[in-house]
Amino acid sequence: MSVSILRSRYFIVTLSLLSVTAIALYSGSRTTLSSPSAIATVNFPDPKTVPSNVQGEQTVVFAGGCFWGVEAVFEHLKGVSNVVSGFAGGDAKSANYDAVSSGSTEHAEAVKITYDPTQISYGQLLKVYFAVAHDPTQLNRQGPDSGTQYRSAVFFANSEQQQITKAYIEQLNEAKIFKGAIATQVTPLNGFYEAEEYHQDFIDRNPAYPYVVIHDLPKLKNLQVQFPTLYKNKVR
Hints:
The chain is α+β, with helices and mostly antiparallel strands. The protein has one domain (3-226): Peptide Methionine Sulfoxide Reductase, Chain A (2-Layer Sandwich). Helices cover 37% and strands 17% of the residues. The strands form two sheets. The chain has a six-stranded mixed beta sheet, covered by helices on one side. It is globular and about 40 Å long.
């Protein structure tokens, strides 16, 4: 386990575990762990704007807090062939975990998703991104992680991705799907930089890591429940 991971997240995880224990003892009942959610009790809509008939493999870059959980969510979708954890928004010199974790770069922890549009559409990816992968109403944070490196952002590769994403955010806000306004940035992709090897497939390698148990595994469960026809078991 890298020292950099322990520095940035171990203390937060320890506090989270202590808080959960304290709440359970105080309430006298078992506390159910679940991923953060600001979603109202309504059906999550499909995007009204649909992509054109694109051909061949496509890519998209999403940021939504710690990339471990976001990566795992999209790896479990049919039609997605590859997901890579990395950094987007800054320059190549600062594209390393220690620098990004300091909050002094313009990077966000992000994932690059490669998918087949004949099996899963960009609109379906957006729906999973907003409904399961993270809480888009949190500004420059996700759960216990705070800082611009944990911001919600869609880094679009072309004008069509930009148009569909902005239209969907307006659609979700107008429908009041969330209890608060969506804080997701929609910004051009000027470069994606792969994160260190130990970050790739982190959940598969560390399924019992406390941060993963508390914040990431519930996302996979929610994905399976909310999108059963899109969910796939990952082949290791």
